[in-house]
Every structure is written in structure tokens, then in C-alpha cells.
Amino acid sequence: MKSPLLLSLFDETERRPLSVSELTSQVRGALENRFTAVWVEGEISNFKAAASGHWYFTIKDEGAQLHAKCFRGVNGRIRFRPSDGLQVRARGRITVYEPRGEYELLVEGLDPVGAGALRVAFEQMRDRLAAEGLFAEELKRPLPLLPRRVGVVTSPTGAAIRDIIHVITRRTRTVNVLVAPTRVQGAGAGAEVARAIRSLNEHHLRAEREGRTADLIDAIIVGRGGGSSEDLWAFNEEEVARAIRASRIPVISAVGHETDFTIADFAADVRAATPSAAAELVAAREDEMTAIVLTLARDLARAVEYRLLIERERVREAVSSEGFDEVRERLREARRETDELARRLETAMARARELARRKFERVARELSPVRAATRASEGRVRLAVTRAALDANFGARLDTARAQLEVAVASLDALSPLGVLGRGYALVQDARGRVVRSTGRVRVGEGLRVRLGEGALKCRVEGVEGEN
Q1: How distant, in Å, are the alpha carbons of 160, 265, 276 from that of 257?
Q2: Which of 5, 65, 171, 308 sees the fewest Cβ atoms within 10 Å?
Q3: pTM greater than 0.85
């Protein structure tokens, strides 16, 4: 038996034992209040992505391990996918999973240690989309030979659009530029870029359906100027890569500088080192063809000059020959015939011009304002006469119909029972409303209703005369 003295050292609350749930709950509260925001560094193991979208894994070092959990709403903001063996730095809060009595880290942020988070995310997405076949060479489409309209997806205020327009203006006179303005960095920029690509494709398909060939888009340039990896990240997003691959129009990726590579570069049909290089790709064919045409024109001019020299020498030889006089006479005769034919042609042309002038003057007179006003006045007179005739015809028909209606009304009035009553006759009905036509249908003392021309009488039979 315990000593009362020892029991008196503890109050009632301290003497009551705690349940496991109560103790675990108190431990959880103490840990959550003490470790509301901690950073933990270690190696990932036992990584598992659940069907719910949550991540479960363990962070460990050589001496201990810590269970960790990252909910779907949080891991959507993490730019890489964890994997076993990856060294990471996790930020979160400590809690207790009460059903198992284990404490764990609720992860709110995750960064790889060593390689940058963006590099890890870039490599993982590149490998995943490549395995899916999104970058396959057989999907790449050639650029059109001579594009007439080029869509550009970039910032309307950036250096990229100025460089593109400058190069195209300088190197070609046949290419038009259609800009789909969008943000190219920051949160949500990737979605805007993908939306701009889809918008240009919708414009192209709509023009194709409506037969507006001048509004068709032959190629799309997607890009921006240089910047940090963070600045260029919009072009590493999966949504942009899929929008490029789904485009009906060939896409040129021109992001950053020559040393910068993005997911968009792998997904696009053609990769350009810079926006200016993309514009040169668009205009290069025209420059090449212009150079070829100029070269051919020079070669042709030289060939013609050489041929003229040869033919001139042959003419000189012919002039010095004996048969040249005969040829000269034939040329004179041909010249005289040509002059006669030219004179006849001029006469015929003069006669045709005179006939055309007279016909034009006749048509002009017929179309003169005065003649048009006269025709309009005549038309108004004819309209007034026609309207008067219609009004007269309608009035006559209305009078005829009114007379017919009056005859019908008179006929109906003559046949109406009320008319008969008005001449002094009466209509007798029994209590059920039936018409009494014979004295045999009534009895003495029975109530009857007698309807007159004006009003009705309630009567009672006192006697019957002429009963059948």
C-alpha cells in the first residue's frame, strides 16, 4: 500500500496516467510549436510518388534518418523530381504521424545540393520528353522556301523583336511579320508563350478555312534575348514544348545566346542561336536566290555581248560580199511594206478610237444626272398612279364586303329567336330549362319560366286548357 505521504507530493492530474493518444498528441503539439520552420540536409532514399500526387521519401545521413512528406499542392511548385541518392536541402516543419507514433518532416521547399535546381529540373524534363519521342528527328519539318508571313512569339518591348524586324527589313522586302505579344519571363510566362503559339495556329487555320491565302503564316519564331537561367526558364516548361510540337506551322526556337539551350530548342523544328539568327534563317533563301539571279543575269549579259560581237563580225563580212546589194534592196522593199502596214494600222486604230468615243458619249448622255432625275420623276408618277388605283380597288372591295355583311346580319336577325320574342311571342321553360311545347308536359301547380322580348316571368300553373 502506497504511503499517503508520497501520494500527497503529486496532485490529482499528475497521478492520472495518460493514454497513448493523449501523450502522442502532446508530443506532436510540442514538436510543431518548437520546429515550425527547419532546414534539413541529407540524401533521399525510398522515394515514392503516390497516385494521389503526394511524395513520400526518407532523408538520411550516416547517423540517422527522417521520414518526409510533400503534398501535391506543394510539389507542383518544385522544379525538379526527387530521386533516390540525390543530395537535397529540405525546408519544412516537424510533426507527428499519430497512427504510427512517428515524427516526420512536412516539406514545403526542396533544393538539390551541388547541381542547381534548375539544371536538375532541365535535365530531368529533357530526358523524360526525349524518352517520350517529343524530340525525334523524323518529327522535324523543313522551313518553307520563300515564307511570306512569319509569326513572332516574344515580348513586344524586348530587344528580340527589334532585332528580328531589323534583320528582316534589311534582308528582304517580301516577308511580313505578325507579332503575338507575350511575357517571356516570370511566373506564368510559359503558359502565355504556349497560348501565343496556339493563337497563331488558330489564326492560320481560320485563314485557311476562309481562303485568305495572304493571311496564312509560313513559320513561327519563338524566343527572347539572353538572360540568366531563371530568366529563360519559361522556355524550359513542358507546356511550351508540347505547344511547339502540336503546332501546324514550323517553329524556329531562338532563345538567349548561342551557348544557351532550352527545352524549346529540342522541341522546335529548327534551332537558331539568337533571335537575329532566326530572322536571317527566314530571309536567307531570298538573299540566296537574289544572289543566284544576279549571278545568272551577269553571265547572261556577258554571253549576249559575246554573241553580239560574233554576229557583228558576220554582218561586216556580209556587207563586204557581192550579194549584200541584193539583200539591201530586199530590206528596202520590206521597209516600204512595213511602212504601208503601219499606216493602215494607224488608220484602223483612229477609226476604232472614234467609234469608242461616240459610244462613250452616248452612254454618258444616257447616264447623265438630268436623265436619271427624269426617269426617277417618271417612276414616282407611275408609283402614285398605281397606288391610287390600288386604294380605289381596295375601297370598292371594302364597300362590297360591308354590304354583304349587313345583309348577313339582317338575315341572322330575322332568324333569331329574340326577334320573334320582340314581336309579342313568349318562350316557356320548365324547372329544368326544357322548352314547353305542349300542355301535356305540365301539371297544375308546377313552376314555369316565361321569357319575353324584354325580361322573363316566373309563373305557376293554376289550370290547363286543351289538355291532350
Answers
A1: 11, 12, 10
A2: 5
A3: no
Q: Give the C-alpha separation, 468 to 465, whole Å.
A: 9
pLDDT in tens, 338-377: 888 888 888 888 888 888 888 877 777 666 666 667 777 7
366-410 pLDDT tens trace: 666 666 677 777 777 777 777 777 777 777 777 777 777 777 666
Contact in structure between 177 and 219 (CB atoms under 8 Å): no
Three-state DSSP class for 211? coil
Return the minimum-mean-pLDDT range out of 58-72, 80-94, 167-181, 318-332.
318-332
Distance between CA 82 and CA 61 in Å, rounded? 16
Query: Number of structural domains, the chain?
Result: 3
221: left (phi over 0), alpha (psi -120 to 50) or beta: beta
Domain assignment present for 299 = no
CA atoms of 156 and 141, how far apart (whole Å): 27
CATH, residue 84 = 2.40.50.140
Q: In angstroms, rounded to a whole number, what is the distance separating the alpha carbons of residues 271 and 264? A: 9
Task: In whole angstroms, give the CA distance from residue 161 to residue 261.
Answer: 19
Angle (nearest 5°) at CA 10 between 7 and 12: 95
Banded pLDDT at 433 (limits 50, 70, 90): confident
Angle value at C-alpha 306, between 301 and 310, nearest 5 degrees? 145
Torsion of CA 41, 42, 43, 45, to 10 degrees: -100
Q: Does 183 lie in the same domain as 96?
A: no
Q: Tell me the residue range of the domain where 428 lies.
A: 421-460
User: How far is 93 from 417, CA to CA, in rounded Å?
Assistant: 103
C-alpha cell at 444: 297544375
